[in-house]
Design brief:
The complex is a heterodimer of chains A (407) and B (565). Chain A has helices at residues 3-21, 25-79, 82-87, 90-110, 115-129, 133-140, 144-161, 163-166, 197-233, 235-250, 253-264, 268-295, 298-306, 310-318, 323-346, 358-364, 377-401. With 407 residues, chain A is mostly helical. The chains are: A mainly alpha (407), B alpha/beta (565). At the A-B interface, helix 13 of A face helix 13, strand 17 and helix 15 of B.
């Protein structure tokens, strides 16, 4: 019996006993049932199975620690009230937002190589503005899953924005033979044309996530705008919008997208439009329902009696009271949009080669599955991880907006 | 009241309850003792936030979500310690030996089941009675509580009976297992004065008949004087004093209790109509109905003069708020018109000019829904000033500070806060401030004090009165509380079923002879005399209260004809 096996059981039993002694029921039950399961596993699978269990547990622990540390990091940031120095100084605030935007536009036009940094700065400023003690209070209620989700999203954002600096090879550079196995220059091996899989995954983060994000934002601008207007105006406008939404929703979404793409050709702009049209009705329905509950409030009546226009009503009175469910819905719709775009790419009508995209990467490497290789599963896993992470965060936000803050 | 056995039923000692807020446990109840004997009725009174309902729930061994009973508290019910009892032991008590009657019967009944099925749920669950027995017992209780058609009413759904009947049905339901203790949590607060009497009479009788002990929670002193044997006064989780009802009413010891008793003293001097002046607002022969619905207002006419307060009283459903909606332009009338200083006011608010809109402002009943929770106080008040007067920057800030001063709130403290950080009375003041910021001549006050405690309500009334004197405002004061009318009104309009049944100066309205409906309303207001209810019931007869009394008014009565003409 190897030293590892002895150590393994000793650790488990020690943890169970300590948990039982300090009356930590769940920990004890978890540790001791794992011990019992390990007895069976050890007999059936030998030290190998135990090693696998230990690695899984270690990974889980690592993930937990990363999530915990990340959450504490965010709380510390928020507690420093750094956001207030922006919100209390409008010139600084607008300066910090406008300068990066100008830089982004300029660098696109004049081909300066600073687009990535300007974009990162812009996102950083937006995050920092939200950092105040209120946010710190909210962050403390975040469960570990939400912290994990935020960490994953953060990692993807970094990978996407700084893709050219992170990726060791070019997006479409052929550097070895087809399906070459992983070596020191290729972390995940090569794809069907001999391009570096890891580099393409990093670029894919930019293309796939960027496209899905733009499409979701477009769907929200369309849907939420129409929903807020419908709830405020009511009457025939509400009816008209509702019926249009019904018509769009009655068309199967994938077929509609395929139709649009085959008519207008698979360009990025058409994909965004098609996806936005498909998802806008859902957003419309939710927004209309949420805003419908707000417009019956007395403060809306007071504002109407004051003679306020629709624009003010929506912007200052209704929207601030409907943001929580809309943000939660945004996360949810983002996942659906992402999966739809990946599905379109898989069918060959989405983002066109040689641009790296996770959906099409799955399709291009699909032949490898029959040889027992996991290469095509890596982009699929990237999609799954992001979807799960976003949903973790959304779950937390839904929980907060449903008013179940304290149990 | 029936003679009492001196056996202790409920004994609460050093009760401490904490609530979770802002990530710490803060005390809500700070050590309250309470002893209730069998068959005794104890009234718990205090402002909102005094912990009345929390104590009521604790008497069942129950702590609401986000609260906990601190260790060391003792709640002993008939020899059983509830703080250490298991959840299933406590559950076995609830419904069978301790029952609860909530403030809103409409919200407490399940709308999907018939009343009698909900009534028989507890006796069937505890296997005290068979279904048929339980139903017969329910009908018996309905009869004792003087519900109309006791054999049939239980087979209706909750929405098919009136609010007062539903509240009595709920009391009957609490009685279904003949509990030893019933907790009444503000059972009549949501009811009209006329309906309140029938519920009070019914509750008192049935508690007497079965010798049930009761905790009666309310903020209305006059009500508790009718119901309770002893009264306990609470303030912010502390007991102020406890004494028998007689003693408490005649001889309160603590200053706080005295201040509660003194609340109804405020009365503004009566103003009279200026001679030969055009009325500020003149409602002329207005009929109104909601789309497709029946007529809500029927030939309503009255005048409001500058600088005067006109109180509109009546039961719920009498068309008071609808009249306000017609004046503000939210509901264009189907017939008749509204004149402002002699000129017609456009019937729809959308076709009124900015200046016409600013003249007529509204203050709402529920400050919670009347103030946008996501907007800072500075903007809530600043927006009308900015919108109508075009103030900006420092001018705007000065104006907001000025208005905050006017409503007696410290500008530096409130300028940057959100409505949720304010107390009920402060919120209502912000509502007033928003109306003032428009610099109106006329304000509609829709039940502005009915959601507030008496002390706070009085503060609001005094404020409104002071503002009226300073700014020469006219108020249309919608209320169902006649004490409020007495303290602030100059003229009174009584409405019943969408018609104005009587109107005139306050002094005339409070001196007989009255229209029979006014008479009914006036005599239904509880007084601080503990024998008031008994006397009233003797005068009117037990079957002639509430809906029955209103229905009995003869439309051909000469007085009725006279006031309508």
């Amino acid at each position: 019996m190897s030293l590892f096996v002895i150590g393994y059981y000793t650790l488990l039993l020690a943890v169970s006993c300590l948990a039982a002694y300090f009356n930590k029921k769940t920990v004890f039950l978890l540790a001791f049932s794992l011990t019992l399961v390990s007895f069976v596993l050890g007999i059936v699978g030998g030290p190998g199975a135990l090693r696998a269990v230990a690695i899984c547990a270690g990974l889980l622990l690592l993930t937990g620690m990363v999530s915990y540390a990340f959450r504490e990091f965010l709380i510390q940031m928020a507690e420093s009230n750094i956001g207030l120095s922006f919100t209390n100084n409008p010139p600084v605030l607008y300066g910090c937002i406008i300068i990066p935007i100008v830089l982004i536009v300029l660098s696109r036009l004049l081909e300066w190589p600073i687009t990535e940094f300007a974009l990162a700065a812009l996102i950083l400023v937006i995050i920092l503005i939200g950092m105040n003690s209120e946010t710190a209070k909210e962050l403390r209620t975040a469960p570990m899953t939400a912290a994990f989700g935020m960490f994953v999203i953060f990692t993807y954002a970094i990978a996407g924005i700084f893709a050219p600096y992170i990726a060791p090879h070019g997006e479409a550079a052929v550097i070895s033979s087809a399906f070459a196995p992983a070596d020191e220059s290729m972390l995940l091996g090569a794809d069907q044309l001999g391009r570096d899989m890891f580099s393409r995954i990093v670029y894919g983060a930019r293309n796939s996530v960027g496209l899905a994000l733009t499409a979701t934002v477009a769907a929200f601008v369309l849907g939420a705008g129409a929903g807020l207007l419908a709830a405020t105006k009511g009457g025939w406008f509400d009816q008209l919008m509702g019926r249009i939404a019904d018509v769009i929703m009655s068309i199967p979404s994938l077929i509609f997208a395929l139709l649009m793409l085959s008519i207008f050709g698979p360009s990025t702009f058409v994909i965004i439009c098609a996806v936005a049209i498909i998802y806008a009705p859902r957003v419309f329905r939710l927004t209309r329902a949420v805003a419908g509950n707000v417009v019956v409030m007395d403060y809306i009546e007071a504002a109407k009696l004051r003679g306020e226009g629709t624009g003010y009503l929506i912007r200052r009175e209704i929207l601030p009271n409907s943001t929580a469910p809309l943000i939660a819905e945004f996360g949810l719709e983002f996942c659906f949009v992402f999966l739809l775009v990946a599905g379109l790419s898989f069918l060959g009508l989405g983002i066109q080669p040689p641009t790296a995209d996770w959906g099409s990467m799955v399709r291009e490497n699909a032949t490898l599955i029959s040889f027992g290789d996991i290469t095509p599963l890596i982009p699929a896993a990237a999609i799954a991880l992001l979807t799960v992470a976003v949903n973790f965060v959304v779950d937390w936000m839904l929980f907060r907006s449903s008013g179940l803050k304290e149990q | 009241m029936a003679s009492k056995k001196k056996e202790v039923l409920l004994k609460i000692a050093d009760l401490k309850i904490e609530g979770y807020s802002d990530e710490t446990w803060v005390p809500i109840i700070k050590g309250v003792d309470l002893t209730l004997h069998r068959g005794e009725v104890m009234g718990l009174i205090g402002e909102s936030g005094a912990g009345k309902s929390t104590i009521g729930a604790a008497a069942m061994g129950y702590a609401r979500d986000g609260t906990r009973i601190v260790e060391g508290s003792k709640i002993e019910f008939d020899g059983m310690e509830l703080t250490t009892a298991s959840e299933s032991e406590k559950r076995a008590l609830r419904g069978s030996r301790i029952a609860y009657v909530a403030q809103s019967a409409a919200a407490s009944f399940n709308p999907a089941h018939k009343i009698i099925d909900q009534h028989t749920e507890a006796p069937l669950h505890y296997r005290i009675q068979k279904r048929m027995e339980a139903q017969e017992d329910a009908m018996d209780l309905y009869e004792r509580l003087r519900l109309p058609n006791p054999k049939e009413i239980g087979f209706r759904y909750p929405h098919q009976v009136s609010g007062g009947q539903l509240q009595r049905a709920m009391t009957a339901m609490a009685m279904s297992c003949r509990p030893d203790l019933i907790i009444f949590d503000e059972p009549t607060t949501a009811l009209d004065v006329t309906t309140q009497i029938e519920v009070l009479a019914a509750i008192r009788d049935i508690v007497d008949q079965f010798n049930t002990a009761a905790l009666y929670i309310t903020h209305d002193l006059a009500v508790v004087a009718q119901m309770a044997d002893t009264i306990k006064v609470l303030l912010k989780g502390n007991e102020v004093e406890e004494a028998s009802t007689e003693e408490m009413l005649n001889n309160p010891k603590e200053d706080y209790t005295k201040s509660l008793w003194a609340v109804r003293s405020f009365e503004s001097p009566q103003r009279h109509r200026p001679k030969d002046a055009t009325p500020l607002i003149s409602v002329k022969n207005v009929d109104a109905a909601y789309t497709g619905g029946p007529k809500i207002l029927d030939d309503v006419s009255f005048d409001i003069y500058e600088g005067m307060t006109v109180a509109v009283v009546g039961e719920s459903g009498s068309g008071k708020s609808t009249t306000a909606r017609v004046i503000t332009g939210l509901l264009p009338p189907s017939k008749g018109e509204v004149l402002f200083r002699g000129d017609p006011f456009p019937p729809d608010y959308r076709s009124r000019t900015k200046d016409q809109l600013r003249q007529c402002q509204m203050i709402y009943q529920m400050a919670d829904t009347a103030l946008n929770p996501k907007v800072k106080i500075s903007e809530i008040i600043g927006r009308p000033a900015q919108f109508y007067s075009g103030l900006k920057g420092a001018d705007l800030k000065n104006r907001v500070d000025e208005i905050l001063d006017l409503i007696e709130l410290d500008p530096s403290k409130f300028y940057n806060r959100y409505p949720s950080e304010l107390s009920g009375g402060q919120k209502q003041r912000i509502g007033i401030a928003r109306a003032l910021a428009a610099e109106p001549t006329f304000i509609v006050c829709d039940e502005v004090t009915s959601a507030l405690d008496q002390l706070v309500a009085e503060g609001i009334l005094r404020l409104l009165d002071r503002l009226q004197n300073e700014l020469n405002l006219a108020y249309m004061f919608i209320t169902h509380d006649l004490a409020t009318v007495r303290s602030i009104a100059d003229e009174v309009i009584v409405m019943q079923q969408g018609r104005v049944v009587e109107q005139g100066p306050k002094d005339d309205m409070f001196t007989p002879p009255h229209h029979p409906y006014t008479d009914l309303l006036l005599s239904s207001v509880p007084e601080m005399d503990p024998n008031w209810l008994t006397t009233l019931l003797e005068e009117r007869g037990v079957d002639n209260v509430g809906d029955a009394a209103a229905a009995k008014i003869d439309p051909n009565d000469p007085k009725v004809q006279g006031t309508n003409a």
